[in-house]
Amino acid sequence: MAPQVDVSTLSKKLIMGYQGWFACPNDGSEPNRWWHWFRDNSTPDTSNLTVDMWPDISEFGSDELFPTNMTNPNGRPAALYSAYKPSVVDRHFSWMQYHNLDGVMLQRFLIDVQQDPRFKNFRDQITVNVKTSAEKHGRAFAIMYDVTGCNQQTFVDDLTADWTHLVDDDPLKVTESPNYLRHKGRPVLGIWGLGFNGPQYTATLAQANDIIDYFKNNASTEHLATLVGGVPYHWRTPLDADSDSKMDEAWVNVYRLFDVISPWSVGRYVNVADANAKINRITQDVADLSSRNIDYMPVVFPGFSFKNTAGNQNHPLNEIRRDGGRFWWQQVYNAISSDCTMIYGAMFDEVDEGTAMFKVVANQQNLPTSAQETLVHLNIDGYLLPTDWYLHLADAAGRMLRGEAPVSALMPIEPGQRSN
Fold first, then answer.
1. What are φ and ψ of residue 88, in 5° steps?
2. pLDDT below 50 — which residues of the chain?
3. Which residue of 34, 79, 152, 225 could cross-link 65, Cys pair, CB 3.0 to 4.6 Å?
């Protein structure tokens, strides 16, 4: 088993995002509904899927799984898990420990906290599950707020109040955990979604200034934090037709108030050659920030598929191919060879957008029968991969980041390839 992770620093860490947002009817939670598996709590069948990958649930117990209206090849109902169950999250963290992964940033969507106490309570239970499992398995964890779609009028007050709730209230008290991640002497707190371009990103420039100033300077001592900013990929460059940012000089100055900047690159590379062509953006970001004593945490992702989540034909299945892990590995290599000392992995359990790194179904014939043409399986690009292939790659990447293995553009493990 992997040793206890050093939680005193982000340096030399590969930290993955953890959604933990999957719920099912009869799972014991207050929503008591399908959430993030099927569209709008609709009939749990193939036509309503909002995920593009299917988790490997072969290790799960019957009390952790909930039947859908879909059918497995063996004729039994296809089932899915609820993260509300502590044993489910514990299993995920046991995989992290087995594969020597550092830990996660638990995503906390402010809109859930603002709009519906049932979903706030659900999120709280997931937080307790993560805290307990991180402590049990010696992994690090931290909170990352996603402010997408939040109520603009109450954004600052709601975010500060919720952080106070997480820090002060039982059974949460996240920063009292010996496994809560710290950096530069303070607990790590991520804020994702400030200054992105689009109507769902509502926080204003003034609010962004206020919230950063609060967590860095104005909060009481126990609520101060080292801030990781999940910012647009084009966070410091002029607007263009492809920009995801409201970027102007004022927003750039706001981003430079973060202690750590982490530009969102999912979808910005489409293959290995594209990732290599854009490596200069990483080197320029590092150069810009190093003289300002700001850390840089690039985002890497294994692939992308958004067909079922989008619910239309604008996104093809398997939109950005994984290429047996080579696409992901090249991004990791580019980051480390560009002197990045920390990396954010998108994501551990994100089957919605097809970026999941945890165990997912590898073979098409093991998918629910009605969804075999509408879900991405690990072998879709012509490789013979085990369900935990990307956990093995993440283990190898962590060793490379920590200096325990040589920095190499070649994956240290090779996927099997079909003969036909």
1. -65, -50
2. 418-420
3. 79
